[in-house]
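Quick illustration, no need to memorize.
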Amino acid sequence: MTETAKHDRPEAPRQPAIRVMMMPRDTNALGTIFGGIILSYIDQAGAVEAHRHAKGRLVTVAMREVEFHQPVFVGDLVSFYAEPIRLGNTSITIKVVVEAERRTSGGDRVLVTQAEVVFVQVDRDNRPIPLARR
């Protein structure tokens, strides 16, 4: 496909794996959302996407390169976009991009962080097994 052809076709809007409104219970002593809360949602969003491509029991084995660029505030609507970037023999790697929509500033969107989450398919004894793809 040529560059021109790519630009002629409108892109479908991205859909988040999950979207969450941040609440006061999730704040730290500085009044921003705990990083651990965001990490938990990254794991969940990655799992949602991983299960779209693999069936069976998947466990999280790694979360790579999480660096926070912007804080998240109470009332922010946070979207977790997920896409597979690598399918291995027993694992699937999902890239999760986190954006916050600022409710207090007219809906501005900011990049919060991104991460690669690695899931491995396991048997009932939690031993890695070949990935069963959908």
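The mean pLDDT is 90.
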